[in-house]
Amino acid sequence: MNEIEDQIHRYVAAVTRSERPVALAEVIDRQSRRNRARLLTGVAAALCAVALAVAGFVLITNRGSKHALIAIAPTTPAPSQTPTTQAPNPALTTGLKRVALPGGYTGYVPAVGPIAISPDGRTAYISPTHDGVVTPIDLRNGRAQRPISVGGLVQAIAITPNGRTAFVVEGGIADTVVPVDLATRTVGPAIHVVGPRGLGSAIAITRDGHMAYVSSLSENGTRPTGPGQATTTQTTPSYVVPIDLQTNTALRPISLAPLPDGGHIVSSDAPPCETNCGFDETIGGITITPNGSTAYVSDTELPTGGLFAINLSTGHVGPKINIGGGTAGPVAVSPDGRTAYVAGDGTVTPVDLASHAAQPSIRVPPVELFSAMTITPDGQTLVAVGYPSIGLLNLASREAETPIRNPSGGTDIAITSAATSAVLPPATTPSVVSECSLPIHIGNDATITPTLCDNGGINVTAWDYYAKIYPRFMGLGKSVSESTVLTLMCAEQKSLPTMEQTSQLTARYYGWSFAASPAFEQWPFYPKPSGNECP
Amino acid sequence: MADDGGSDCLERVSFEGFFTRVEPRLHAALRALYGADLGREATAEAMAWSFEHWDRVRTMEYPVSFLYRVGRTRTRRLRRRWLPTQVREQTTSIPEVDPRLAGALERLSERQRVAVMLVHGHDWSQGDVAALMGIDTSTVATHVARALQRLRRELEVHT
Questions:
Q1: Which pTM does this prediction carry?
Q2: Interface check A37 vs B, CB under 8 A
Q3: What is the bridge-based pairing of β-strands A186-187 and A176-181?
Q4: Is the omega angle on the peptide bond into residue A303 within 30 degrees of 0, that is, cis?
């Protein structure tokens, strides 16, 4: 057998040859079906293309040169795929990005997969791969602990308010919700969900920890209309599945759309799909009001998205609240329970929960595709995770704040509830000053700006940048002598400007009392113990 | 009115040229991520999104990287249980390819699989893959090395 690289090349070539490329007409048709207003444009485009092609053909025929066609059908210059120099990725070794949020909160954003943080703020649980494991991360040092195997594909994770149990939504073959005892790392019996044949990626737990609500997928395909009856193509709408966490049993699903009997409680399973079976995740998010009375569920019903209110006492589903503006994505409710925020296509729509009236949509630049959304516990800031970065919205002024750079993207976010400074590895103690996350600019000499926040705190992005270059120096800790610091500066420096920035940043982080001493300020020309200057 | 129509024509033909250039690269990346069927679906979704948002997409410096993320986001809606079987292809009929290769590729992490398939299957540079994923080139090199190491071990290929 050939080298493995050669086998990969042959394999990819064979698979590519056997595959049907996506056609332009298919793309136009796909988009046109979503938005009927686009249909005319699409048809016009096709007609234009045909017209220009004919015109080009005429010109080619007349001039005998293909350049004529190129001349009349200019295209945008080929977008360059040349890579740029990538700044160091300010991420923990696990791919978990830590961000300092307004109000002193700390957010954690995984590059892939869901995240949940224990109520004490010490441990994050992530599942960055589709291999059925949940990995605990010690947030004090950023280190991954031994993974917990839950089986299947982890779609969502939620932790009970008492911090004892994590509930993992497993969207693999079994379609179950799996309880995990976080103290013993014991995986309990899977909770089987009746009704839907697929679970989604949204889960919310009530504040009293008694109930969880999990989204299901919408299923479409051809199936019998009844036992022994003819088949028909139909779509089963998305459900919300209540789970009693005291008995770990799934209750009857709640349909967002009215059922044939006029109610919303699903009392019987739909006949299994026979052909052309497909699934669609239309529910963008579930959130529960602080008083635990209502769950708000965002659901996409093309061409407009909507928000549904479920009375958790009765299971009654209110009429759809139109939010407009395309698909309905993640949803968050303010801590005072007065306003819900629903992410759509490039915007966030506030919904007054007293009147259920949608207010004008707001952009949270630069976020265009929303993956997850949360609100800081003080209710001041909405944090939107998506592409191409993390956006911040001041909820008092409803104006966007300086975004947080997040080049690796992000799929979910969890924030620590305590408004305290986080430990920034390689340090093992928290910063003595506040933190912020500001985008950095890398200069030609590899120094960066800004290293500090406007209020003199530590810019976490800058800290992470230098932590990769000077990990030993930045891990020195609070209790260290000036001579030790100066000696290590001489030994470790990669360049004078970067070492100077690092020493200033680290001194501020630990609050070194000698940071203003003459020797420290005059480094590297200080007298070493041997009497020589630092080389 | 004639000018408007002509301008619109040129815009659409520009999208056509963009589509011709970008679709193969995007399709290759998403196929490596999700396998044939779901990869094709993700590509179609991303290209449909780019058609709708053409005014923004046309000015992008790295549209493949952006649309790769669009494809990922849009296919969140699709059934994730399909993923394991989507990556596996029929390899028994490909000459000089170990039939176990597809299964071994499937068991790699997403990033390892995308990196090794694009670098060694589509001859992308590691820099191209880094730009696609938004990660360091050195990280791509690590993914590729580890993927090859794991594939060699699983397929018992000795160098």
A1: 0.60
A2: no
A3: antiparallel
A4: yes
**Top mean-pLDDT range of A264-278, A421-435, A447-461, B71-85:** A447-461
CB-based contact A433:A458 (threshold 8 Å) = yes
In this structure, the number of other CB atoms found within 10 A of the CB of residue A40 comes to: 10
**C-alpha to C-alpha distance for A495 and A444, rounded to whole angstroms:** 12
| A251 to chain B, closest Cα gap in Å | 23
Residue A414 CA to residue A115 CA, distance in Å, equals 6
Q: Give the torsion through C-alpha atoms of A37, A40, A43, A46, to 10 deg.
A: -90
Considering only CB atoms, which chain A residues are within 8 Å of B13?
48-49, 52, 73-75
> Which residues does residue A351 pair with via DSSP β-bridges, in sequence order?
A340, A358
Catalogue the E-assigned strands of A77-225: 96-100, 106-110, 115-117, 123-126, 133-138, 143-144, 148-149, 154-159, 165-170, 176-181, 186-187, 191-192, 199-205, 211-216, 218-224
Measured from the Cβ of residue A326, the count of other Cβ atoms closer than 10 Å reads: 18
Neighbour-count burial for A433-446, b at 16+ CB within 10 Å, e otherwise: bebbbbbbeeeeee
Angle of helix A4-17 versus helix B137-155 axis, rounded to 10: 100
Residue A170, pLDDT score: 81
Amino acid at A477: G
The token duo for A45 is 């485009």
Where b means 16+ CB within 10 Å and e means fewer, A105-122 reads bbbbbbbbbbbbbbeebe
Q: Answer whether A1 sits within 8 Å of B43, measured CB to CB.
A: no
In whole angstroms, give the CA distance from residue B18 to residue A78.
Answer: 7
Which DSSP symbol is given to A349? E
Q: Which residues of A touch B69 (CB under 8 A)?
A: 369, 387-388, 409
Q: Which amino acid is at B20?
A: T
Q: Closest partner residue to A15 among B45, B69, B89, by Cβ?
A: B89
Mean pLDDT per 10-residue interval, chain B, length 159 residues: 36 70 92 84 87 79 85 65 42 75 85 92 89 82 90 83
Half-sphere exposure of B60 (CA within 13 A, CB side): 18
The continuous run of DSSP H or E covering A71 comes out as helix A67-72
Distance in angstroms (rounded) separating the CA atoms of residues B43 and B49? 10
Q: What is the pLDDT of residue A429?
A: 82
